[in-house]
Amino acid sequence: MKRESEAILEDGLATPLVGVWAETKYRLVAMYDKLFSTGMKDKWDERVYLDLYAGAGYNRIRGTNRMIAGSPILALTVEHPFDKYIFCEEDPKLMAALQARVKQTAPSANVAYVTGDCQIEIAKICTLIPPYSPAKTVLSLCVVDPFDFGIKFGTLRKLSCFFVDFLVLLAIGMDANRNYDHYVKGNSTKIDEALGNTEWRERWKKLGVLRREFRSFLASEFAQSMESLGYLHQDLHQMKLVRSDDKNLPLYYLALFSRHEMAYKFWNDVMKYGTDQKSFWE
């Protein structure tokens, strides 16, 4: 799925347009980047930041001239930078913009770029993650921020063979509502691929709950799929539900998945201060 539209900013580089609610998402991502990069710097020999939908590095709030940094720039500008960055972006124009902005922001950073669909290029992405050994421990943080519920679970399964924590945006709010009949009653395999199973339909039918619960059901199903890979259990209340600012509609969940309790301590701090940025930074 392509971005809705693009704008050309003062730097002459392509920049996606996003809703104002994206500020909430990026604030939470920035908080977690800070805690993860600092908290893990003396515990692991190498820390890797992986972004599967990297974008152009900056975004513009729709209807305004306000630019906000995207996840790659946020990760590059933490106090204790990661040892390696891997950015994947399908759109060549956005990748070119990202490369130019990374060069301006962090010219000395160790960055690998993969142009293409992360689900097609996953084998290449895996080769770029430094190998783990007792003499050189490696921990990665993978940000998964698609534009709809289009991630294939098989992609995450392949990455889970490494020591990887996932920060995942589950873009199922509007998607689940608009395409409910198509997913539940049709022949679409999109949800099957996102969850990594085909049994979810039977579980949904047995629940017998209202259609409006479909969004939360899918989020819980995804968490169970991550558990099957050895990640710790995540309840819905541990995920951040981001809503639109205009009509207060549920848009997506932002969820952390890790095999280590320490990561959830960081995430609890992010959730605690997610609506109060000032107290977090003080």
H/I helix tally:
12
Briefly note the CATH topology name.
Rossmann fold
Output the CATH homologous superfamily: Vaccinia Virus protein VP39
The span between the termini is 39 Å
What is the second-level CATH architecture? 3-Layer(aba) Sandwich
Largest sheet: 7 strands, mixed
Share of helix, binned = 25-40%
CATH class call = Alpha Beta
Lateral strand order in the biggest sheet: 7-6-3-8-9-11-10
Beta-strand content estimate:
15-25%
Taking pLDDT < 50 over at least 5 consecutive residues as the criterion, the unreliable ranges are 1-8, 276-282
Q: Structural class from helices and strands?
A: alpha/beta
| Beta strands, count | 11
What is the N-to-C succession of helices and strands? EEHEEEHEHEHEHEHHHHHEEHH
Radius of gyration (Å): 18 Å
Global mean pLDDT: 91
Could you say which overall geometry the principal axes of the C-alpha atoms support?
A: globular
What does this structure look like?
By secondary structure, the chain is α/β, with parallel strands linked by helices. It has a single domain, classed as Rossmann fold, CATH 3.40.50.150. It has 12 helices and 11 strands. It has helices spanning 22-39, 71-76, 92-105, 122-128, 153-159, 173-178, 180-184, 190-195, 200-207, 214-227, 261-273, 277-281, and strands at residues 6-8, 14-18, 46-51, 58-61, 67-69, 84-89, 111-115, 138-144, 164-170, 240-243, 250-257. A 7-stranded mixed beta sheet has the order 7-6-3-8-9-11-10, sandwiched between helices. A 4-stranded mixed beta sheet has the order 1-2-4-5. The longest helix is centred in the first third of the chain and has 18 residues, at 22-39. It is globular, with a radius of gyration of 18 Å. The protein starts with 5 loop residues before the first strand and ends with a helix.
